Structures are given as C-alpha cells and as structure tokens.
C-alpha cells in the first residue's frame, strides 16, 4: 500500500495543484515531485524500475515543453504517449521473443505460454485504448482542462483498476482450469 501511494503521489499532487492553481502550476508540481521521487529512490538505494525511468523522461519532456512554451497541449499528450510507449514495448518485445508481462510476474505465477501471450497482448491493447480515450477527453473540445485533469487522475486510475481486476478474474479462471487438468 505504501508503494502504491508513493507511486501515485505526483498524480495526487497534480490534481490538488490543478484544483487550486492552473495547468501550469499542476504541471510544475508533477515534474518536480516526480524528480524528487526518483532522487529519493536513488538516495535510499531502492530499485528504480524501467517504467519509473520512462515516466520520469516523459513527464520532464512533455511537462517541460508545456512550461517552456506555455502550451497545455504537451502535458495533455503525456498520458497517451506514456501508455502508447508501454504498449509498444509490450508488443515490440514479442518480436524478440520477450514477454515483459511474464518477466514482471513470472516469479509469482506459473502459466502456460499462451496465457502469458494473451495477457501481454491484452495489456498492450488496454494501453492503446486508454491512450485513445485520453486524446478524446483532452482534445475533442467537449471537456475543459480541469475536467481532463480529473479524468487523468481518477478516470484513468479507475480504468486501470477495473482492467487489473478483470485480468485477475481471468487469471484465476485460467489457473483453476489448468489445475483441473
């Protein structure tokens, strides 16, 4: 639970800053807290996984562009770019016979190769779809920047939780079926 709160800390502060300030204040807060997070992990000699490094790079680049050019378009693209990079990594890994979902979770679960492949593909598709939804909410003209920020923090998080629960249910059925054979 502590790690989950630690991981969501910049997102929560982004939301608070957006509510009390504007998109530029919120972007500054997100960039600074993400940098501080990585520095803290380094100082405390904790492992910094690849997704954290990727998130840091994307927030610094897109948040920096938002602040430097004073254009909120860049920060609105940040979730989509990050999610699409995750999808590209998952799908691209398959070209080299790498299943990054299995590498991430394989020490916790024993599954047949087909199940790992389905899970890897489903996560990649999830990231692609959520990226598309973000583009719609950010740029369709139907939502304000504050509404987009609320969606980014709560809507995307809820989608992630619902998808992860669905994956867990699918996994439990798959594991039960394998145990019955």
Low-confidence stretches at least 5 residues in length (pLDDT < 50)? Answer: none
Approximately how much beta-strand content do the residues carry? under 5%
The best one-word shape is: globular
Number of H- or I-type helical stretches: 7
What's the structural domain tally? Answer: 2
Would you report the number of β strands?
0
What's the rounded overall pLDDT mean? 90
Main beta sheet, described?
none
Distance between the termini: 35 Å
Oligomer designation: single chain
- The sequence of SSEs as H and E is HHHHHHH
Give the proportion of residues in helices.
Answer: over 70%
Structural class: mainly alpha
Radius of gyration: 18 Å
How is this structure best described in words?
The structure is a single chain. By secondary structure, the chain is an all-alpha fold. It has two domains: 1-69; 72-173. Helix content is 84%, strand content 0%. It has helices at 2-20, 23-43, 50-69, 73-95, 100-105, 113-139, 145-180. This is Inner membrane-spanning protein YciB. Keywords: Cell inner membrane, Cell membrane, Membrane, Transmembrane, Transmembrane helix. InterPro entries: YciB (IPR006008).
Summed up:
The protein is mainly alpha-helical. Helices cover 84% and strands 0% of the residues. The protein folds into two domains: 69 residues; 102 residues.
Any key phrases for this structure?
181 residues, mainly alpha, 2 domains, 7 helices, 0% strand, globular, YciB, Inner membrane-spanning protein YciB, transmembrane helix
Ordered list of secondary-structure elements with their pairings:
Blueprint: H1 2-20, H2 23-43, H3 50-69, H4 73-95, H5 100-105, H6 113-139, H7 145-180
């Amino acid at each position: 639970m502590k790690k989950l709160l630690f991981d969501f800390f910049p997102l929560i502060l982004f939301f608070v800053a957006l509510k009390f300030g504007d998109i530029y204040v919120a972007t500054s807060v997100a960039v600074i807290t993400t940098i501080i997070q990585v520095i803290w992990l380094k100082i405390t000699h904790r492992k910094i996984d690849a997704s954290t490094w990727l998130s840091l790079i994307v927030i610094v680049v897109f948040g920096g562009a938002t602040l430097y050019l004073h254009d909120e378009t860049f920060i609105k693209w940040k979730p989509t770019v990050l999610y699409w990079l995750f999808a590209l990594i998952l799908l691209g890994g398959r070209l080299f016979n790498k299943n990054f979902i299995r590498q991430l979770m394989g020490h916790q679960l024993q599954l047949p190769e087909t199940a790992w492949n389905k899970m890897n593909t489903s996560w990649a598709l999830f990231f692609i779809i959520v990226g598309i939804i973000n583009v719609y909410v950010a740029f369709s003209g139907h939502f304000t920047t504050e509404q987009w920020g609320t969606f980014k923090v709560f809507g995307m998080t809820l989608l992630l939780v619902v998808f992860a629960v669905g994956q867990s249910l699918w996994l439990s059925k798959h594991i039960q079926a394998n145990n019955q054979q």
